[in-house]
Amino acid sequence: MTRYVVGRIVQAAVVLWAAFTLTFAILYLLPSNPMQLQLAAAGIEQDSLTPDQFAAMQHKFGLDQSIWEQYWQHLSGVLHGDFGDSLSQQVPVLDLIGQRIGSTLLLSVSAAVVSLLAGSALAYLATFVRWNPLRLVLTRLPALGASFPQFFIALFLIQFLSFQLGWFPATGTEGVVSLVMPVATIAVVTSSVLAQVLIKSFDETLSQPYIITARAKGLSRTAVHLRHAFRNAALPAMTILGVIVGLTVTSSIVVETVFTREGVGKLAQEAVLSQDVPVVLAVVTLAATVFVTVNLVVDLLYPLLDPRISHVRAKVTAPEVVPA
Amino acid sequence: MTAVLTETDPILTPAEETRTRHGGRLGTLARKPGFLLASLYVLFVISVAFRPGLFSSQDPYGTHPESSMQPPSGAHLFGTDVYGRDLWSRVLHGSPLTIKATLIALAIALIAGLGLGIVSGFFGGLTDGFLMRVIDVLLAIPGLLLALSIVTALGYGTIPVAVAVGVGIVPGFARTTRAEVLRVKTLPYVEAARAGGASWGRVLLRHILPNSWGPVAVLAVLDAGVAIIAIASLSFLGFGAAPPAAEWGTLIADGRNYLVTSWWLSLLPGVFVALLVLSLNHIAKTFQELGR
């Protein structure tokens, strides 16, 4: 058991390191002219610099070193909790993220909770209802929800709930009311993804012999559904918990941009627009950390919740779900 | 997508067997109105992507200040924008950019994903272990963020966005192909072909590849929808083609500023995109059910 846990943690750390390295490679090896990119981000015209100033800037960005030295500096920096300075705002990247992480965490966690509740409720109803037309509508609903681009859902909500009905503010970060529409936007997509997996899992569970046994000994449908089927059906859905959290994190980019919320997602969007490489690297690394950690926790919890799974075979791979 | 991975051999009941033999698959498809509608819409959008002028006579870039911000009507199906440009025509002329970006993204994902999946599934062992770890790493970075870092490095425009989205959907293709190759590799006809003296290369090309290809094709249709959403999202965030050319995402983003007074500027192009994704998902789902 200990060996499995340690092995899994080491594996997660290696994946995380590789993800950081890959992102670093994309950001520092792909650009044809990294100096131009970083000067542009800092808002400096390359032509206005004397060769001496140019060399000084190059030294400041660390671009006069070999790529290995740059990589090593960034990696050791990250391990010491230092992501360098933002090019466009000249403040430590970690400060920028620190100011905004609270708002994004609140948004992501609320969206994940709402998605879990709504997704489970929908899957439960879709498999419980016996009237066929309604059942069909309910089972098709998740596919519909997953087909809408998030920015479209957001604009739709703004148009109707904000401008027409005036229920919620269209933009801003103030108070709980401003959270309702962003959370709803994310939840439409993530709860659809979850409901799709849950409905399939419910269907498989309900055809198991122990369900028939439970019905045969006289238990009501509700009792069987709630006590016998739900817990077993929910297990496979746990494997996509990481995917759900990952989706809420990436969704924050679009959602915070549309609702003008000051958060890490909007920071990421602005960083790409100003080609602020250190900020992009930091945000991607943080998001990967969250995603890998959630998957690690799910993997470690899974054998505890389902003792049938031995520790050796417990590596459950989540289905790939779409970047929305 | 798990359905694709865990799919086993189709076991036909006698009734189904007669149906496939007599009615044929096309007959079954023709009896599904939803599928027909979805296919027609996808065909419409694809033909628009190659000949945007076919369904609209108006100039997408011609400004008519006197008729700006008109709501949808017979003359302007989607209304007009702030410069009086016909929105319907702008949406149609935006399709070549978005559809081409989608096709490039899919091509990247198909070539890289099929290649990785086949090598991984066919050779197995250390190669497989290594390639699957690479895929794990790609999966550890949430899709949109991976795309954002690629766009930061490559700059803006239709091609960088297409590349970024394509790389993001490679892992799914690689895993599906690998699972299929692993399944087909152990089937008796592969053994028979080997026993009959065919080389591994021939077995791979003539026997394994054609039989692994079904679920991958379904995934390609499904991921076309995913890619369209991702591409539209990236151009919505402002990383797409430069104005006045307008991808769908850019059109929707532009209309956002006039949402209070002119809802159609954002919402109608949005519906256009959503319908396309919905159609693609429905087609993929129908194929999946048929393959079972």
UniProtKB/TrEMBL annotation, chain A:
CDD domains xrefs: TM_PBP2
Species of the source: Actinoplanes palleronii
Entry keywords, A to Z: Cell membrane, Membrane, Transmembrane, Transmembrane helix, Transport
Gene3D superfamilies in alphabetical order: MetI-like
Membrane topology: Multi-pass membrane protein
Matches recorded under InterPro entries: BPD_transp_1_N, MetI-like, MetI-like_sf
PROSITE patterns: ABC_TM1
Family: Belongs to the binding-protein-dependent transport system permease family.
Annotated transmembrane regions: 12-30, 105-129, 141-163, 175-199, 235-259, 279-305
Listed Pfam families: BPD_transp_1, BPD_transp_1_N
Domain ABC transmembrane type-1: 101-302
Protein's UniProt keywords contain Transmembrane helix: yes
UniProt keyword Ion transport present: no
Localization: Cell membrane
Domain of life: Bacteria
Annotated protein name in UniProt: Peptide ABC transporter permease
Principal subcellular localization: membrane
TrEMBL record, chain B:
ABC transmembrane type-1 domain ranges (all copies): 95-284
PROSITE patterns recorded: ABC_TM1
Compartments (UniProt record): Cell membrane
Signal peptide: none
Membrane topology: Multi-pass membrane protein
InterPro entries to which the protein is assigned, alphabetical: BP-dependent_transpt_permease, MetI-like, MetI-like_sf
Residues spanning the membrane: 35-54, 101-123, 130-148, 154-174, 216-242, 262-284
Major site of localization recorded for this protein: membrane
Gene3D superfamilies in the cross-refs: MetI-like (1.10.3720.10)
Family annotation (Pfam families): BPD_transp_1
Similarity field: Belongs to the binding-protein-dependent transport system permease family.
Name listed for the protein in its UniProt record: ABC transporter permease
Organism field: Actinoplanes palleronii
